[in-house]
Amino acid sequence: MSSTNYHLAQFNIIKLKDQLDSPVVKEFRDFLAPVNQLAEESPGFVWRLKDDQGESAANVETPYEDELIFVNMSVWLNYDYLKAYTYQTVHSYFLKSRKKWSLEIEGHRAVMWYVEEGQIPSLAEAKAKLDLLNQSGSSSKAFSMTDIYDADGSRLGK
Nearest to residue 69, comparing CAs of 15, 127, 26? Predict the structure, then answer.
Protein backbone atom coordinates (compact mmCIF):
# COMPACT_ATOMS: atom_id res chain seq x y z
CA MET A 1 0.00 0.00 0.00
CA SER A 2 1.78 3.14 -1.17
CA SER A 3 1.20 6.21 0.98
CA THR A 4 1.08 8.35 -2.17
CA ASN A 5 -2.35 6.84 -2.95
CA TYR A 6 -3.74 7.69 0.47
CA HIS A 7 -4.62 10.84 2.36
CA LEU A 8 -4.93 11.35 6.10
CA ALA A 9 -8.41 11.95 7.49
CA GLN A 10 -8.92 13.50 10.91
CA PHE A 11 -12.09 13.83 12.96
CA ASN A 12 -12.47 15.60 16.27
CA ILE A 13 -15.26 16.52 18.61
CA ILE A 14 -15.75 19.20 21.22
CA LYS A 15 -18.45 19.49 23.86
CA LEU A 16 -19.19 23.17 24.34
CA LYS A 17 -20.15 24.59 27.72
CA ASP A 18 -23.25 26.18 26.18
CA GLN A 19 -25.06 26.72 22.87
CA LEU A 20 -23.05 28.23 20.01
CA ASP A 21 -24.81 31.59 20.36
CA SER A 22 -23.91 31.87 24.06
CA PRO A 23 -21.44 34.52 25.31
CA VAL A 24 -19.54 31.67 27.03
CA VAL A 25 -18.37 30.34 23.66
CA LYS A 26 -18.14 33.69 21.83
CA GLU A 27 -14.37 33.53 21.27
CA PHE A 28 -14.65 30.00 19.88
CA ARG A 29 -17.57 30.97 17.61
CA ASP A 30 -15.93 34.20 16.41
CA PHE A 31 -12.80 32.40 15.28
CA LEU A 32 -14.42 29.43 13.52
CA ALA A 33 -14.41 31.10 10.09
CA PRO A 34 -10.83 32.50 10.26
CA VAL A 35 -9.38 29.25 11.61
CA ASN A 36 -11.25 27.23 8.97
CA GLN A 37 -9.98 29.59 6.26
CA LEU A 38 -6.45 29.19 7.61
CA ALA A 39 -6.83 25.41 7.32
CA GLU A 40 -8.00 25.69 3.72
CA GLU A 41 -5.02 27.91 2.87
CA SER A 42 -2.51 25.68 4.64
CA PRO A 43 -0.05 23.50 2.73
CA GLY A 44 -1.25 19.90 2.44
CA PHE A 45 -4.93 20.69 3.00
CA VAL A 46 -7.30 18.58 0.87
CA TRP A 47 -10.87 18.92 2.21
CA ARG A 48 -12.93 19.83 5.28
CA LEU A 49 -16.48 19.21 6.44
CA LYS A 50 -18.76 22.19 5.79
CA ASP A 51 -22.44 22.98 6.23
CA ASP A 52 -24.82 23.46 3.29
CA GLN A 53 -23.76 27.13 3.07
CA GLY A 54 -20.12 26.10 2.61
CA GLU A 55 -19.08 27.49 5.97
CA SER A 56 -18.19 25.72 9.21
CA ALA A 57 -19.24 22.29 10.38
CA ALA A 58 -20.94 23.92 13.39
CA ASN A 59 -24.35 23.63 11.72
CA VAL A 60 -23.89 20.09 10.44
CA GLU A 61 -26.15 17.45 11.97
CA THR A 62 -23.87 15.19 13.97
CA PRO A 63 -24.12 11.49 14.83
CA TYR A 64 -24.24 12.47 18.53
CA GLU A 65 -27.41 12.87 20.58
CA ASP A 66 -25.85 15.61 22.72
CA GLU A 67 -26.53 18.93 20.96
CA LEU A 68 -23.49 20.51 22.62
CA ILE A 69 -21.11 18.13 20.83
CA PHE A 70 -19.75 19.72 17.68
CA VAL A 71 -17.69 17.92 15.07
CA ASN A 72 -14.83 18.81 12.76
CA MET A 73 -13.39 16.66 10.01
CA SER A 74 -10.73 17.26 7.40
CA VAL A 75 -8.44 15.45 4.99
CA TRP A 76 -4.74 16.23 4.54
CA LEU A 77 -2.00 15.00 2.22
CA ASN A 78 -0.16 13.53 5.22
CA TYR A 79 0.44 13.83 8.95
CA ASP A 80 3.26 16.38 8.67
CA TYR A 81 0.93 18.92 7.04
CA LEU A 82 -1.81 18.31 9.60
CA LYS A 83 0.69 18.55 12.45
CA ALA A 84 2.07 21.87 11.13
CA TYR A 85 -1.42 23.37 10.87
CA THR A 86 -2.54 22.00 14.25
CA TYR A 87 0.48 22.97 16.34
CA GLN A 88 2.35 25.71 14.45
CA THR A 89 -0.45 28.14 13.57
CA VAL A 90 -3.02 30.13 15.53
CA HIS A 91 -4.99 26.88 15.71
CA SER A 92 -2.68 25.85 18.57
CA TYR A 93 -4.08 28.72 20.68
CA PHE A 94 -7.52 27.15 20.46
CA LEU A 95 -6.20 23.75 21.48
CA LYS A 96 -4.50 25.28 24.52
CA SER A 97 -7.53 27.43 25.38
CA ARG A 98 -10.33 24.92 24.82
CA LYS A 99 -11.13 24.59 28.53
CA LYS A 100 -12.49 28.15 28.40
CA TRP A 101 -15.44 27.08 26.27
CA SER A 102 -15.55 23.29 26.33
CA LEU A 103 -16.20 20.47 28.77
CA GLU A 104 -14.15 17.30 29.17
CA ILE A 105 -15.18 14.29 27.13
CA GLU A 106 -14.34 10.79 28.26
CA GLY A 107 -11.85 9.11 25.98
CA HIS A 108 -10.22 10.45 22.86
CA ARG A 109 -11.60 13.59 21.22
CA ALA A 110 -9.73 13.13 17.96
CA VAL A 111 -8.92 10.28 15.60
CA MET A 112 -6.97 9.87 12.37
CA TRP A 113 -7.06 7.24 9.64
CA TYR A 114 -6.19 6.89 5.97
CA VAL A 115 -8.61 7.21 3.09
CA GLU A 116 -7.96 6.50 -0.55
CA GLU A 117 -6.96 9.60 -2.48
CA GLY A 118 -10.16 11.34 -3.62
CA GLN A 119 -12.36 9.65 -1.00
CA ILE A 120 -14.39 11.91 1.30
CA PRO A 121 -15.11 10.26 4.65
CA SER A 122 -18.64 10.27 6.05
CA LEU A 123 -19.60 11.36 9.56
CA ALA A 124 -20.77 7.82 10.29
CA GLU A 125 -17.35 6.47 9.28
CA ALA A 126 -15.60 9.13 11.36
CA LYS A 127 -17.66 8.36 14.47
CA ALA A 128 -16.97 4.65 13.97
CA LYS A 129 -13.21 5.38 13.78
CA LEU A 130 -13.34 7.44 17.00
CA ASP A 131 -15.36 4.68 18.69
CA LEU A 132 -12.80 2.10 17.50
CA LEU A 133 -9.92 4.18 18.89
CA ASN A 134 -11.70 4.55 22.23
CA GLN A 135 -12.55 0.84 22.43
CA SER A 136 -9.33 -0.71 21.13
CA GLY A 137 -6.59 1.91 21.31
CA SER A 138 -4.43 3.12 18.45
CA SER A 139 -3.97 0.89 15.44
CA SER A 140 -3.33 1.46 11.75
CA LYS A 141 -7.14 1.56 11.28
CA ALA A 142 -7.75 4.40 13.79
CA PHE A 143 -5.07 6.25 15.72
CA SER A 144 -4.49 9.17 18.03
CA MET A 145 -2.36 12.30 17.61
CA THR A 146 0.26 10.72 19.89
CA ASP A 147 0.47 7.27 18.29
CA ILE A 148 0.82 7.88 14.55
CA TYR A 149 0.74 5.31 11.77
CA ASP A 150 1.75 5.54 8.13
CA ALA A 151 -0.58 4.53 5.32
CA ASP A 152 1.34 1.24 4.98
CA GLY A 153 0.36 0.34 8.56
CA SER A 154 3.76 1.00 10.15
CA ARG A 155 4.14 3.18 13.21
CA LEU A 156 5.68 6.58 12.64
CA GLY A 157 8.09 8.27 14.98
CA LYS A 158 6.80 11.60 16.26
Answer: 15
For 111-158, the pLDDT digits (tens) are: 999 999 999 999 999 999 999 999 999 999 999 989 999 999 999 865
Q: At residue 50, what are phi and psi to the nearest 5 degrees?
A: -135, 160
Helix (H, G, I), strand (E, B) or coil at 35: helix
Strand residues in the chain grouped as ranges (E): 6-16, 45-48, 69-76, 102-103, 110-116
141 and 38 Cβ atoms separated by less than 8 Å:
no
pLDDT score recorded for residue 158:
54
Please choose, from the candidates 126, 134, 144, 13, the residue with its C-alpha nearest in 3D space to the C-alpha of residue 75. 126
Nearest to 87 by CA among 74, 96, 98: 96
Please give the model's pTM, rounded to 2 decimal places: 0.91
